[in-house]
Amino acid sequence: MCNLYANIATAEAMRRLFQVSADLDRLGNAEPRPAIFPKGLAPVVRLDADGKRELIEMRWGFLTPQVSKKTGKPIKPAAWNNARDDKLRKSGLWRGSYEDRRCLVPVTSFNETKGRQPATDYWFALTGEDPDGRPPFAFAGLWRGENPELIEEDETELRHTVVTTEANELIRPIHAKGRMPVIIEAPDYETWLSGDPDQAAALIRTFPADRMRIALQGVGEKADRGSDG
């Protein structure tokens, strides 16, 4: 399960990694985002109507309506920021997006927390040539246009979520439920974006622990302040 991630890569670095042409970069003057929480805005790579990759901003979490247990009246919608790999084809919440609207979520590190009072935050990144850097990579994601009745007036209707799977040996001791985001590697970007559901399913696997590291650890370390790798 992932409830906090960072993307401090520059727009140029994202365009280069995901092979997005400058005219399909919809982010404008994108700022580094050291802490992206559920319902927050974040860059996403998807295929446009012509089948070309574009960088576009979406809010994190598919929305579903909620009602108060006390009054029975509608309250703020729930935001589903993680999609379990074993429910992608079973749940109506995910199935349509998994079949037709997969995306890549640019990331430089993600956070998991262990313990309470005080909790310890662990920021996970990929290994790279620079031991202090954060090489950009991609979560497997899904996206959809949200129900207009569930979004606030100033919010974009576009929403994304992150696919999760079983955690590797590095993350499992820290994550209470033994989950981690699915990481898609560059040679597989096109398959995840445009392949059929069976082809995409072959990419849903646990990322090797020996290719990851704990980039930051400490009490209250709620933002990735590392440099772009």
Automatic annotation (TrEMBL):
InterPro entries: SRAP, SRAP-like. Keywords: Covalent protein-DNA linkage, DNA damage, DNA-binding, Hydrolase, Lyase, Protease. GO terms for molecular function: lyase activity; peptidase activity; single-stranded DNA binding. Its EC number is 3.4.-.-. It is an enzyme of class 3 (hydrolase). GO terms for biological process: protein-DNA covalent cross-linking repair; proteolysis. SUPFAM superfamilies: BB1717-like (SSF143081). Belongs to the SOS response-associated peptidase family. This is Abasic site processing protein.
